[in-house]
Design brief:
alpha/beta, 4 domains, seven-stranded mixed beta sheet, 20 helices, 11 strands, about 50% helix, about 15% strand, binds S-adenosylmethionine, NusB_RsmB_TIM44
């Protein structure tokens, strides 16, 4: 008799997202909504899949070490590993009964890979289910005293080089495990009330709680942000409080003389441009939003639609070959392309995708963009250089090198935000004055 098994669609969907991340370089947060729709998943089922995908990708490093410890042969097909990772997350981090986690994983492998590896899947997951996560970590992670980086890498699921780079930037070894743990937690949903268009009070009345760092921030306790009318109308948006502070650092910097022309050099997809435009409109200034990639410039144009009075234009251009004349602008933002290692909470796969080489390749571009931004600023004007990475080569390394090379600008302030201290992405913000 042939046994027909109905495969659980939530787990199939999670598997399909992992496959898209592995094979197509997809971003999990972008692939998820599409796959959920394809499988007709909503409500609790969609929430289950979302947690399964995000948690599995975040904890992949730890889970792989555990899976490897349970294998009798070292080689494992990537698609079987994906199914095992999903099974391990259910066993060690979700409240799924062992028998359900194991049997659904075996069904998944049978449906998506074939009968061959079902026995192995069953055996590995049974072994994993015999202990809890702390016990497994104690068994598979290097000794903390003799190899603290190696231990943190396995225990907190970050590549070794990322642990080293974050540790160097943080500079407080005792805090590093707390930072790495914060990277593994889902970020809070933070809204921005765009001044002049929406008040913080309106968002509080819609069920939010005032943020503590940005005067425009409101944390949404739950629910779909796009269901908040002000968000749907573009008067408010979803924006990390750290990103809001980047925009306010530029807008609030002291300035003598003219304050009319603002520039956002790297504006796509446009979250900071929209806040800057709202702030500019309140004082009769306008923002020129520039972005190298045309499709991202179109997103900026859509994002600033609600604040037409604060925008002088949205253009597609290369900030290192600027179409504007030197000394044109009063306030300039360079929100530079970066490794994104400060936003690991919201981009679970990026820690596994990024390499030290990416940082090496980004630094010359970051320097070039900052140097041209200083050139675009009038004497006495202000430049904010920001990254959603705390990696020193991308932050103070870039700023110090550019200021030393140019000799016509001074550093006024730097601020490094941290998820575990500030509840924000690890944004770096440098405020620079053109002399
Ligand atoms: C960190 S993102 C900016 C995020 C944006 N400020 C926001 O708040 O939505 C960096 C952007 O810089 C753009 N970029 C990369 N190289 C550039 C260049 N040479 N000139 C202008 N933009 C560039 C990327 O396409 C990317 O959209």
């Amino acid at each position: 008799m042939v046994r027909s098994t109905r495969i659980d669609p939530s787990r199939l969907a999670a598997y399909d997202v992992l496959k898209a991340v592995r094979l197509d370089d997809a971003y999990a947060n972008l692939a998820l909504p599409q796959v959920l729709a394809e499988h007709g998943l909503t409500g609790r089922d969609a929430a289950f899949t979302t947690e399964l995908v995000s948690g599995t990708i975040r904890w992949q490093g730890t889970y792989d070490a555990i899976i490897d410890a349970c294998l009798t042969k070292p080689r494992l097909e990537a698609k079987v590993r994906d199914a095992l990772r999903l099974g391990v997350h259910q066993l060690l981090a979700m409240r799924v009964p062992d028998h359900a986690a194991i049997s659904t994983s075996v069904d998944l492998v049978r449906a998506r890979v074939g009968v061959g590896p079902t026995g192995l899947t069953n055996a590995v997951l049974r072994k994993v289910s015999t202990d809890d996560l702390p016990t497994w970590v104690g068994r598979v992670a290097p000794d903390e005293a003799s190899d603290p980086v190696g231990h943190a890498s396995i225990a907190r699921s970050h590549p070794r080089w990322v642990v080293e780079a974050l540790g160097e930037a943080l500079g407080v070894p005792a805090e590093l495990p707390v930072l790495l743990a914060a990277d593994n937690a889902a970020p809070r949903v933070m809204l921005v009330a765009r001044p002049g268009l929406c008040t913080v009070q309106e968002l509080v009345e819609a069920g939010g709680v005032r943020g503590t760092l940005s005067p425009y921030a409101v944390e949404l306790a739950g629910g779909d942000p796009s269901a908040v009318p002000a968000v749907a109308q573009g008067r408010a948006g979803v924006q990390d409080e750290g990103s809001q502070l980047v925009a306010t650092a530029l807008a609030d910097a002291d300035l003598d003389g003219r304050d009319e022309r603002w520039l956002d050099v790297c504006s796509g997809p446009g979250g900071k441009a929209a806040l800057l435009a709202a702030l500019a409109a309140q004082r009769g200034a306008t923002v020129l939003a520039n972005e190298r990639q045309h499709h991202r410039a179109r997103l900026v144009a859509r994002g600033v639609r609600a604040v037409p009075g604060g925008v002088s234009g949205v253009v597609t251009g290369d900030g290192t070959r600027p179409p504007w004349r030197p000394g044109t602008f009063d306030r300039v933002l360079v929100d530079a392309p970066c490794s994104g290692l400060g936003a690991l909470r919201r981009r679970p796969e990026s820690r596994w995708r990024r390499t030290p080489r990416d940082v090496e390749e980004l630094v010359p571009l970051q320097r070039d963009l900052l140097s041209h931004a200083i050139g675009a600023t009038r004497p006495g004007g202000v430049v904010v250089y920001a990254t959603c990475s705390p990696v020193l080569a991308e932050t103070t390394g870039v700023v110090d090198a550019v200021l030393a090379a140019r000799g016509d600008a001074t550093l006024e302030a730097t601020r490094q935000l941290w998820p575990h201290r500030d509840g924000t992405d690890a944004m770096f913000i440098a405020t620079i004055r053109r002399t």
